[in-house]
């Protein structure tokens, strides 16, 4: 089993990696960048854990950020572990949504629950799990609290694939459908690929280019057409429209799962 560890920067990824692995090694650099590739053996010998650079989204704005997309495109991982900062849910869940769309089994390690608590943020973990349709395991990676539960989850034979899916609206959904039809040769989740293409993920586009069986020009025409329509009607870019829809869904979810003490000085949407 190969598990990919993904999360925003500074969410406790290294701490969690160390808790879950007995040993690790650097297996050279990721292609094209000077970031060490770190692979660990999960305790209980249940598989390998791959440490990926922290990213806010899969649509990369730097080369380092492209590594996560590049890795997912290799289609090696059997399962994904998403570390989420409980004190910054609204920002963190953008990546979570893109990982859910990727369609592999996913479990959320809800980290920094101590920080969230000290800020007066109470999270209904069960409800969050229901909303996203994935297991959510609260942890404190710095002390190792709860990390055992993550290992136990990966010991299970049948890991859960979420049914979570966003309705991006008629125009975008139609484009997703049309692009998906042209991706028939691809092994990876077509909806995820289509959405990443619509967002302008260059790494995914480069990957599709290498597949000679796919009519890339037609895909690009669909994207350009939709981009124009969105620009006219919604006065924003296509990538922005997708982002905004996710943000709206995230806000709806947070309204259901977060309660905040009145005297706390921070808002949970920052
Ligand atoms: P990375 O940048 O995502 O790899 O995160 P690190 O593992 O380096 O952690 C960043 C900082 O957060 C470090 O100072 C950790 O000790 C701290 N940290 C990690 N997990 C927790 C946690 O659950 N609670 C608290 N309070 N601090 C944490
Ligand atoms: K760090
Ligand atoms: Mg780190």
Protein model, in words:
The chain is an alpha/beta fold. Helix content is 46%, strand content 18%. The chain is built from eleven helices and nine strands. The chain has helices at 13-20, 63-73, 89-102, 113-118, 125-132, 147-155, 170-182, 190-198, 202-209, 216-234, 238-257; strands spanning 2-7, 21-29, 36-42, 48-51, 79-85, 106-111, 121-123, 136-138, 258-260. The strands form two sheets. The protein has a seven-stranded mixed sheet, sandwiched between helices. A hairpin with a 6-residue loop joins strand 2 (21-29) and strand 3 (36-42). Helix 3 (89-102) packs across helix 11 and helix 7 crosses helix 8 (190-198). The longest helix is centred in the last third of the chain and has 20 residues, at 238-257. The radius of gyration is 19 Å and the shape is globular. Magnesium ion is lined by residues 13-14.
Characterize this entry briefly.
This protein is an alpha/beta fold and 270 residues long.
Spatial ordering of strands, largest sheet: 2-3-4-1-5-6-8
The rounded Rg comes to: 19 Å
The overall pLDDT, averaged over residues, is: 92
- Count of DSSP helices? 11
How many angstroms does the end-to-end distance come to? Answer: 36 Å
Outline the biggest β-sheet: 7 strands, mixed
* SSE class: alpha/beta
H/E element sequence: EHEEEHEHEHEHEHHHHHHE
Binned, the helix content reads 40-55%
């Amino acid at each position: 089993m190969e598990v990919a560890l993904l999360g925003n920067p500074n969410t406790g990824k290294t701490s969690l990696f160390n808790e879950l692995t007995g040993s690790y090694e650097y297996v050279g650099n990721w292609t094209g960048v000077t970031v060490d590739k770190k692979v660990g053996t999960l305790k209980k010998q249940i598989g390998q854990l791959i440490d990926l650079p922290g990213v806010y989204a899969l649509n990369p704005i730097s080369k380092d950020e492209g590594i996560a997309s590049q890795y997912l495109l290799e289609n090696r991982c059997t399962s994904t572990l998403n570390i989420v900062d409980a004190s910054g849910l609204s920002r963190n869940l953008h990546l979570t949504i893109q990982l859910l769309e990727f369609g592999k089994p996913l479990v959320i390690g809800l980290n920094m629950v101590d920080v969230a608590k000290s800020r007066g943020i109470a999270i209904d973990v069960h409800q969050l799990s229901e909303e996203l349709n994935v297991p959510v395991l609260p942890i404190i990676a710095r002390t190792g609290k709860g990390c055992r539960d993550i290992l136990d989850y990966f010991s299970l034979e049948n890991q859960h694939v979420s049914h979570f899916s966003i309705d991006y609206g008629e125009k975008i959904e139609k484009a997703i459908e049309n692009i998906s039809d042209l991706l028939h040769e691809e092994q990876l989740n077509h909806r995820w690929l289509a959405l990443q293409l619509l967002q302008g993920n260059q790494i995914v586009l480069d990957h599709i280019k290498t597949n000679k069986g796919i009519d890339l020009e037609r895909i690009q025409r669909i994207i350009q057409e939709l981009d124009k329509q969105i620009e006219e009607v919604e006065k924003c870019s296509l990538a922005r429209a997708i982002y905004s829809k996710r943000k709206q869904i995230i806000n709806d979810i947070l309204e259901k799962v977060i309660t905040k003490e009145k005297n706390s000085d921070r808002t949970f949407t920052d």
